[in-house]
Structures are given as structure tokens and as C-alpha cells.
Design a protein that fits this description.
The chain is α+β, with helices and mostly antiparallel strands. It has a domain of 150 residues: Aldehyde Oxidoreductase, domain 4 (2-Layer Sandwich), CATH 3.30.365.10. The chain has 19 helices and 31 strands. An eight-stranded mixed β-sheet has the order 10-9-11-19-18-17-12-31. The radius of gyration is 27 Å and the shape is globular.
Length: 756
């Protein structure tokens, strides 16, 4: 269902079959694991058994001598270049830390950190060779929880990390890499005027993105220095640039060929295997293929940060928010760089609050370096704020949705980080769930209903598209954005809308870094927005060229030719009229092929997105099991280009939020070892755990896009954890403030409640 209808469009808002659907359903789509090259060798990676240790020495001689082994590589094979900072599209990283996260040099800072790579004639010999590599470690004490890592005297992960305090380097060695602060108004005066104040503490576990396809890379480094890499990545150009920096190799000599991707959600932006495969290929003169095992994926790639959060909020007697304060500490993992800025931007973004302060900390711990996960750091922030909002509503005796609507952000609301909202759909999204039948269904004993709302700001960045018109009137559309969830089609639809064509007339393809202009990472909910805008501009280019061709054909000035709804016509001579396909068949008569192109960089006007949930749960008071009975998500898409694609994003984010809420976590021992690094023990939701997810698409057009698009991929994961926590409170009367809300924690809370 949709709250508005886009009756003015012929393609946008329809539900064509996805262009890549047939190949994926029939198993013909080529993923990274499917790549096979002549003479290919197989690689494996040796990983640290310790969470924290100095590397005294690495002896690879026995591995090199093993029959069938062709090469071994370590961090010593990286070139010696000065450290610098790199922007990966969803975060900035130090080159030194990026390299150490690929192959450790002087120290390991998490169990599973890569130490050496081996290439052999088959996988089994490569595995055997790993056992022959001798690494002399000086084992150090690990620290795996953010508050422990922040304490004075905690084991230091890096001697070179000094705390940046509000942008200034203090020179103080610490596990706290940085501290940011945003302020608005007069916080003390705001709280002094409050009639009701609630302050609570929250903690969230480290969780994984849950993609099914493991990380992989196949590389061939030719004798002339040309390096080609086949990989499953969220950004071929981002991967290329990381490899170029790590190996100090010109980008002009690196081609990254993106394969189909079996999920990413932010976790496949950093490179892990690509430089290792490249080094091994250079040493051997053969292509080298590497694929991670499932334990490697869990222990050695970037999950989302665990966190400790404290939120304090106050309202006046009339139910208006007057002050809010947040303290948020996020676990960056073994190297600095948690997405703390995003958390700070989103924490209070759903509400108008005249006086606020946000302090946020980036803290290193002995866990894998964190990576983005679908609205990074916003779900943790919303978990805290939305539980406090529910408690405030209860103390005021207000309906929780009415309380949120009373304080909802609107056009002109200033966020605590200084951004003033343009036209947004926060109110409309809240109204959509308030008016949904799910909000009025009667509840039984041990059942509860919870609501919550969340925000993601979305990004624009750079995208390039080119299009060539075929003589049958179809168009080949070339783009550089990895298609994770249907963006080939959503981009093709925007191109088709401009030219009056059907979506099926467009043949979209995602190509390598040598075949299209620079395109940023698939992340930040940017592709349908930004690459779609590039497609819109490329279609305008094609249209302009086709108008000139029609004018040549009719021997009239170009300004006498108009185009509307797929038809070119003479302004005053009705006999001169050709539709797009008819004119395409005559291009050879007017000068040959027509190729359109466009590049955009829309860093303003991206239009943030809001998502809201209603969740009904049933709690077994004896076992603590929480069953999700009903789940409704409403989200502002601006304009839903392909509604089924939008609904899929809404449902997918909601399901991941349910898993995060109830059972997903990295379980660490005191030695810093992950004890549940398989899908048998790391429990993601299955169809048996889930209800049908009801979706409501809200459409408040984004004025910063030709078709009003807002990114939709990230907002739906933000509110579910808080909504489920609020529903559990409704069912049991106990508020849970730690994720995941496992059965044992539910039972413990109920027992504590009974004990008084």
C-alpha cells in the first residue's frame, strides 16, 4: 500500500521484472566464487590465534619448501610508503591501519587478524602450508568491551593512538581514538525547565551483517604491471583505490571487475583478500584465488560496533521535549574508525529539541575492525532514545505515538549537529503507523505492542552512467554501481521514464572500473538516488541528441522539434512525427550512433529518510522466549521508483533488526576469542522465526531529486530493536536495556521484578 499515488509517471511506480532476476533464479549469475582462470592457483590466509600479541618474527621457510606451494606473502611485501588517510565512501581510514588489517606487521589486535598468505596448486596444500608457518608471538592482555577499554590503565592496543578531543590531538595515549561533541541551546536551562526527566543506560553487542556469500578475490598481475581483480565488492572503484594505495600501484594499472554480490550491507566495502591475492599473483606469475571460510568471515571482517550509551531526556508539563543529552561510546574494533559521526547525527534527529548535547567516542578494542552495517551506529542510538521516549510518554500518560507526533521533526527543525531539515516525512511516517490497523488489534495476556521511529540521513556522492541507443530502439545502459538489491532496474526505470520507453527496453549492466566513469560505493542508500540521477541526466543527453537527429532527418531547425511521452514531433507540421524506436532505426541516416553520458555529485539535497515500526510480541514468562506476532514498517521513500524493491528493502532491514534485537551477538571469551563463529551458533532469523512484514510506503517527495527519490536501504533497520524492547515492556512490565534481549535476560528481568 502507499499513502500517495504517482499517477503522472508511466514507468516509475510500476513493478517490472528485475533485469537480473532470471539469471539469479536459474543459477547463471556469476559470483566471486565462480571465477575460474587458466593456470589459477589457490590461496589461504594464516590468521592470528591471539586477540592481542606482538609479532616477534615470522618464519615461512618450511611453508615455501612444501611441494605444491608456489609463494608465501607477509606484510613485509608491502611497499614502504608514508601513512595517509583514505575515504572509503562510508568512513575514513589510515593507510597504515588498512594495511595491518590486511596483513599484520608488528602486532595483532584481534583473533583472526591475517598474518600471511599462501598460494599453492590446490587448496589442501595451501591449508597444509599454513601449519608450517612459524610465528613467534608475545601474547598481551586483551580488552573486548568498550567501557573496559576506556579506563585508565587498560591495555593499549596501539602506542601510536592518541585521543583527539573535539578535533584537537591531546597527545595522550589511549584506546579512545576520538571524542566528538555537538551542542544546541542551553542544556542546563533546558533540564531545569523540565517537569519529567528520564535517564537510562544501554549496551549493545557486536553483530554481523549476515550476508551469505563469503569474501573472495581472484587476482592476476601480468608482466607489464597490469593488475586485474575479480571480487564481490560494494564498490569496484573504492576497492581499486584501496588496492592502489596499499600496494602503491597506479590506479591506471588496476582493473577491478565486480561480480554479483551475495549480500554486503556495508561489510563488503573494505578490502581484505584483494591485495593478498595480488601480491601472491605477482610472486607466482599466475592468477590466485582466495575465499574466506565462514569462521574467517565472522572473526576477520568488519561487524557493526558494540556500544555503551547513556541517554537523558526531559519534557515540560505539556509534553514538549525541552532537553536531551546523549553519551555514546562505540567499539571501533582493532583499529580506529567506528562511524561515530553518523550516530551523532542520527541520535536525536527524529525530534525537535531546543537544548541538546551529544558526546560520542571512537574506542579501539580487541575485536575485528568494525565496518558499516546498514545505517551504521544509528540503530544503537535509536534503541536508547526510543526506549526513553516510551518511558516519558508513559510518565506523562500520553499515547506513545501522540507523544512522538507532538515532538516530531519537521521542515525547518535544526538537528543537534547543525543541519536544518528541508522537506521531510517524519510526521507522515508516524501518522501512517498510527492509522494502521495493526495499532488497534486487541492484545492477549503476555502480549505487548511497541512503537519506535528511526532516521538515516542518506548520501549522494559521485555516480557515472553512459547509454548507447540500439537501432531497434532499445538502450544499453552502463553503470558502475554494484547491484545488491535491484538497482539495475530502479536506475533503468528512471532512464526509461525520461525517454518514454518501457523498463524492458533498457539493458542495464554493471561493468568494471575501465568501462565506466568513476562511481562511488554502493552504500549510504545512494544508488537509486545518485546513480538514478545520473541515468536521468544521461537520458536527457540522449533526448537532446535525438532531437538534433530528428531535425536533420526532417531538414528543419532543431528548435522546431519537440519531444513528449516518447514521441518526437514538428511543432507546426503534424505529418512529421516519429516515436523513439522509429527514430532509432534511422540514426545511420543522420550521423550514426547516439551515446549519452552523465556524471553527478549530489552532496546536497539527498533528503533523509524516516522509518517507523509497530511490533506485537508474545513473551513466555517461564522461558523468556519472545515471539514476534505482527510487524509493520512505514517508511518515507520520497518517490518509490520500484515499489516491490522498496518493500523488499523495508522487509529486509526489519528482519535484520529483529535478529539484532533478540538473538544476534558476537560472544567473546575473556581471552578475546569469538565462541560462536558459525551460523549454527550465531543465530540469524529464519522464516520460522518471523511473521509476515507489513509495509506502508510513505511518499513525501525529496525536493533534491528530479523524481523525488529518497534512499530506502538503511532507515528500516534503525527502529526495530527499540520497538521490540517497548513491546516486551508492554507484555511483561520490564524494560530491557541490553541487546540482544535473549531469553535468559528476559527471565532474569522478570525474576528481579518478582523479587521486588
Amino acid at each position: 500500500m502507499s499513502t500517495t499515488e504517482g499517477a503522472n509517471y508511466k514507468v516509475i511506480g510500476t513493478r517490472p521484472i528485475r533485469h537480473d532476476g532470471t539469471d539469479k533464479v536459474l543459477g547463471r549469475a556469476v559470483y566471486g566464487g565462480d571465477v575460474r582462470l587458466p593456470g589459477m592457483l589457490y590461496g589461504q590466509v594464516l590468521r592470528s590465534p591471539h586477540a592481542h600479541a606482538r609479532i616477534r618474527s615470522i618464519d615461512v621457510s618450511k611453508a615455501v619448501a612444501l611441494p605444491g606451494v608456489r609463494a608465501v606473502t607477509t606484510a613485509g611485501d608491502f611497499p614502504s610508503t608514508a601513512d595517509k588517510r583514505m575515504d572509503l565512501g562510508e568512513g575514513v581510514v589510515s593507510l597504515k591501519y588498512l594495511r595491518d588489517n590486511i596483513l599484520a606487521s608488528d602486532k595483532v589486535v584481534y583473533k583472526g587478524q591475517a598474518v600471511a598468505g599462501v598460494a599453492a596448486v590446490d587448496l589442501h596444500i595451501a591449508e597444509e602450508a599454513l601449519a608450517l608457518i612459524q610465528v613467534d608471538y608475545e601474547v598481551l592482555s586483551p580488552v573486548v568491551e568498550v567501557r573496559q577499554a576506556m579506563r585508565e590503565g587498560a591495555p593499549l592496543l596501539h602506542e601510536t593512538v592518541t585521543t583527539k578531543e573535539l578535533g584537537e590531538d591531546t597527545g595522550r595515549k589511549s584506546n579512545i581514538a576520538s571524542h566528538l561533541r555537538h551542542t544546541l541551546g542551553d542544556l542546563a536551562a533546558g533540564f531545569a525547565s523540565a517537569a519529567v526527566v528520564v535517564e537510562r543506560e544501554f549496551s549493545t553487542a557486536t553483530v554481523h551483517q549476515g550476508y551469505i556469500e563469503p569474501h573472495n578475490a581472484t587476482a592476476t598481475w601480468s608482466q607489464d604491471g597490469q593488475l586485474t581483480i575479480w571480487t564481490s565488492t560494494q564498490g569496484a572503484f573504492t576497492a581499486r583505490d584501496q588496492v592502489a594505495a596499499v600496494l602503491d600501484h597506479p590506479v591506471s594499472k588496476i582493473k577491478v571487475v565486480p561480480q554479483e554480490i551475495g549480500g554486503g550491507f556495508g561489510g563488503k566495502i573494505p578490502v581484505y583478500l584483494e591485495p593478498v591475492a595480488a601480491l601472491l599473483s605477482r610472486k607466482t606469475g599466475h592468477p590466485v584465488k582466495l575465499i574466506m571460510t565462514r569462521p574467517d568471515v565472522f572473526q576477520s571482517t568488519g561487524p557493526t560496533p558494540g556500544s555503551y550509551i547513556r541517554v537523558k531526556m526531559g519534557v515540560d508539563q505539556g509534553g514538549r521535549l525541552v532537553a536531551a543529552e546523549a553519551y555514546m561510546a562505540f567499539e571501533a574494533g582493532g583499529f580506529p574508525g567506528a562511524e561515530i559521526g553518523a550516530g551523532a547525527m542520527c541520535v536525536f534527529a527524529c525530534y525537535y529539541i531546543p537544548n541538546a548535547q551529544v558526546d560520542v567516542y571512537d574506542v579501539v578494542v580487541n575485536k575485528p575492525k568494525s565496518a558499516p552495517y546498514r545505517a551504521p551506529c544509528a540503530p544503537q542510538a535509536a534503541f536508547a532514545v526510543e526506549i526513553v521516549m516510551d518511558e516519558l510518554a508513559e510518565k506523562l500518560g500520553m499515547d506513545p505515538l501522540d507523544f512522538r507526533l507532538k515532538n516530531a521533526a519537521r521542515e525547518g527543525t535544526r538537528r543537534v549537529d547543525g543541519v536544518v531539515f528541508p522537506r521531510i516525512g517524519c510526521v507522515e511516517t508516524l501518522e501512517a503507523i498510527k492509522n494502521h490497523p495493526n495499532y488497534r488489534i486487541p492484545l492477549e495476556p503476555n502480549q505487548g505492542r511497541g512503537v519506535a521511529i528511526g532516521y538515516w540521513f542518506n548520501i549522494g556522492f559521485k555516480s557515472s552512467v553512459s547509454a548507447s541507443v540500439n537501432e531497434d530502439g532499445t538502450v544499453n545502459l552502463v553503470e558502475g554501481s554494484t547491484d545488491i538489491g535491484g538497482t539495475r532496474t530502479s536506475i533503468a526505470m528512471q532512464f526509461a521514464e525520461v525517454l518514454g520507453l518501457a523498463a524492458e527496453d533498457i539493458n542495464p549492466s554493471v561493468v568494471d572500473t575501465n568501462s565506466v566513469g568513476y562511481t562511488d560505493v554502493t552504500g549510504g542508500s545512494r544508488v537509486t538516488y545518485a546513480t538514478g540521477w545520473a541515468a536521468y541526466e544521461a537520458a536527457q543527453d540522449v533526448k537532446a541528441q535525438m532531437i538534433v537527429r530528428a531535425a536533420k532527418l526532417w531538414e528543419v531547425p532543431a528548435d522546431q522539434v519537440e519531444f513528449s511521452e516518447g514521441v518526437f514531433f514538428h511543432k507546426s507540421d503534424s505529418s512529421k512525427r516519429l516515436n523513439f524506436k522509429e527514430l532509432a532505426a534511422k540514426l545511420d541516416q543522420t550521423g550514426g550512433p547516439v551515446v549519452g553520458s552523465a556524471t553527478v555529485k549530489p552532496n546536497t539535497g539527498v533528503g533523509g529518510a524516516f522509518a517507523a515500526n509497530i511490533v506485537d510480541v508474545e513473551v513466555d514468562p517461564e522461558t523468556g522466549k519472545v515471539q514476534v506476532l505482527r510487524f509493520t514498517v512505514a517508511q518515507d521513500a520520497g518517490k518509490a521508483i520500484h515499489p516491490a524493491y522498496v518493500e523488499g528493502q523495508m522487509q529486509g532491514g526489519s528482519v535484520q533488526g529483529i535478529g539484532w534485537a533478540l538473538n544476534e551477538e558476537y560472544f567473546y571469551t575473556e581471552r578475546g576469542e569469538m565462541a560462536n563463529s558459525s551460523y549454527l551458533d550465531y543465530r540469524i532469523p529464519t522464516a520460522l522465526d518471523l511473521p509476515m512484514i507489513d509495509t506502508v510506503i510513505v511518499e513525501v517527495p525529496n525536493p533534491g531529486h528530479p523524481f523525488g527519490v529518497r534512499g530506502v536501504g538503511e532507515a528500516p533497520i534503525v527502529p526495530p530493536m527499540a520497538a521490540i524492547a517497548n513491546a516486551i515492556y508492554g507484555a511483561t512490565g520490564v524494560r530491557l536495556t541490553e541487546l540482544p534481549m535473549r531469553p535468559d535476560r528476559v527471565v532474569a528481568a522478570l525474576q528481579a521484578q518478582a523479587a521486588g
